Amino acid sequence: MRNRITSANVWDLVSLLAKLGIAEEFFDLAAVDVDRDGAFRRFLLTLDPVLLDAIRHYSAWNAINPKLFFEGFVVGVADSFATVVVDLGRLVQLIVRLQQEQFRTLFLLSTDPAAGVLRIDRQALVVRQAFSGVVASLNPAAVPDKVLGVWRGWEQEFERHLENLDPFEAGRLLGRIAGDLWQLLTGIAALVKLLRVTARAAARYVPLLLQTVRGVAAQGRLVVRELAALLVALGKAAVEGAPRVGMEFLRTLFPPEVLRPLIQQGRALLVHGDLSLAVVFQAAHAEAFAGAGAGTRFGVLVSRENKPLFMAAMSETVSSAGRQATRAELDEALDAILVGLDDFLAEAKAPTLMNDASAAAVKAARAAQLEQRLSTHLNRRLQEVAYGAFLDLRKAGRVNPRELGQLVHQRMAAEVGQLIAQGPPGLKVFTERSLRTTIEALRASSPEFEAALKGAGGALDRTVAQMLLDRPDRDVLLKLIGFEANAAADTEKALASHLSKQFGWKASTTVGDLQSDLLLVDPATRRVTNIDWTSSTKLDAHERAWGKVVDDLGKDFDGNWEAIAQAYQQALGDGPPAEVLRHLEHLTRHAVRETVVRQAALRSVFGETWFVLSHEMLYKGLNSLFKK
Questions:
Q1: Beta partners for 308?
Q2: Is the pTM of this model over 0.85?
């Protein structure tokens, strides 16, 4: 060849090859995966450097090794925002379908889909056109700088890789863009259905698909504003009405490929299949709804089409639902919260029995119905039963904590039985049992519980004082139970003494020794509900408060303590005595403080991926204490 092809006749050869239709095959020999040492390319360029243009012209796509190109494509997709393995052909089909259905205002295709989108070059062209249109519809100020750095000039870089006949890097870059485009398009399509708006209006929220709530202090306010706007669009009733389930519940729906971006990267919004996942936290919720608390430290709102299905949520020391979020709650660092969920991710694996969205929504709704019955019917009935039981025991002259609790439980048995019958399938019910025996029974009930509660033993063995001091939210907890840690020389010893005086617990009382009147465990939704219907550790105050009411009103009062003023007015023509109000206030604060300790104990045992609720059923509840 060296003697026959010279600089004088090389262009005649190119012309002949073109006429014969084999120029592309000839210049394919200069591809990097064929001409591995570059000898053939160097030979051609020594004949005439301008031959580089011919190489580029004839082999820009034909010389691309499909295997190397798609190997690079897969790597690029893994670097993108996509949560699924994106296939180039599938992406093109999605682009064409969406453009025909509803996205004409975002992008137009100059390529006829019927005319060869099976070819790589045509597929790449479709991706480029769609990507350019979608990006043009976004507010660049809302797109993270790092992402913009990749998007700007990608087409020129892509062309350079093609010209250099580097199929792997060309495929890798197109894969990154294709993965981002897949998430953008599926995100817009999901938002169109969820918010019932046009594609262009939905694009307003698309930057959330690219933003993260973890490790981005500089962009923190931007993410809060964007999320708040999305929550407003969804509506307060829809967000707060979504049933709460444990974070662990997400594992039954989503594979690790979805959960890792959500937790490790802290993605603000992502779409997987026909489900969208939006994070909810105090700052964004408060900005959206005039300072209202979110009812969770961190949650993931899962929606399908135009309806939120449920919110996987972390528990709070005291629920912020129904009140204004405090400054401490608003300022809690999301990084610290998400770090606490890293262990949850470390064990993440593909579910063996993956729920579909419909089944998950039904389970969440059943759990919400149970909670509603607890807060309404059961609470009202319990007030009547507890007051009646106290009235009967006082007449018999033998009021003591254990007997009062047993009598209430006996009289409430039918109500509890009905509650359980209407509750979700598989609900575990424990009455008047220590937390240690409860956990032992749960672990013995199934391999799933054995695995989920394998780390509970250490928490059960710690004293109550140690548990409270080790909690991340210890400052709030100690304040709520009336203990000033800063004034104590030996904090643990002083706290144990304080707990003994307040609740009658010994310094050696462990978390496992604590007992609930009623504990409901829902394995399906990873919810734990503790119910205390009497505060038995302050019987003297209990006797003084209730005893005076019995003396004054007897059976004319039914136990509804929030209507005590009206009951006195009707019976005696005057308001309740000051001593009754003082004793009831003291007893209420004590009861809800005791419930706060149980809430903290349950969270330490079950972990942060279970949603834990604790009810003091007779009084105003935990929020009344938190407002003091």
A1: 303
A2: no
Neighbours of 32 (CB within 10 A): 16
Query: CA gyration radius for the chain?
Result: 33
Question: If you write DSSP's letter for every residue of 186-229 in order, what string do you get?
Answer: HHHHHHHHHHT--HHHHGGGGGGGG-BSSS-GGGHHHHHHHHHH
Mean pLDDT of the residues in the chain? 80
pLDDT digit string, tens, across residues 54-74: 666 665 555 566 667 777 888
Token digits for 118? 């099976």
User: Cα–Cα distances in Å, from 325 out to 284, 382, 627?
Assistant: 11, 30, 11
Cα atoms in the Cβ-side hemisphere of radius 13 Å centred on 81: 28
Per-residue confidence (pLDDT) for residue 222, from 0 to 100 = 81
DSSP labels for 229-282?
A: HHHHHH-HHHHHHSPEEEGGGGGGT--HHHHHHHHTS-BSEEEETTEEEEEEEH
Give the whole-angstrom CA distance, residue 395 versus residue 405.
16
**Which DSSP string do the residues of 4-53 spell out, in sequence order?**
T--TTTHHHHHHHHHHHT-HHHHHHTTSTTTSTTSHHHHHHHHH-TTHHH
Residue 553, pLDDT score: 82
Kindly give the pairing relationship between strand 307-313 and strand 244-246.
parallel
Question: Model confidence at 351, in pLDDT bands (50, 70, 90)?
Answer: low
| Token pair listed for 352 | 């063996």
Choose between 361 and 3: higher pLDDT.
361
Structure confidence by residue, pLDDT tens digits, 132-161: 888 888 888 778 888 888 888 888 888 888
Distance between CA atoms of residues 261 and 209, nearest Å: 11
* Nearest CA among 309, 312, 212, 214 for reference residue 269: 212
Select from 54, 34, 23 the least CA-distant residue to 166: 34
Sign of CA dihedral 149, 150, 151, 157: positive
User: Where residue 626 falls among pLDDT bands split at 50, 70, 90?
Assistant: very low
Q: What is d(CA 595, CA 532) in angstroms, rounded to the nearest whole number?
A: 7
- DSSP class of 141: G
Read off the tokens for 598. 């149980």
The SS3 call for residue 555 is helix
Instruction: Count CB neighbours of 248 within 10 A.
Output: 20
Strand pairing partners for 434? Answer: 515
- If one counts every other C-beta atom within 10 angstroms of the C-beta of residue 19, the result is 9
DSSP E strands in 375-526: the ranges are: 428-434, 515-522
Please give the structure tokens belonging to residue 482: 């009336």
Q: Write out pLDDT tens, residues 503-541.
A: 778 899 999 999 888 899 998 899 999 887 655 445 556
Lowest pLDDT segment from 170-179, 263-272, 355-364: 355-364
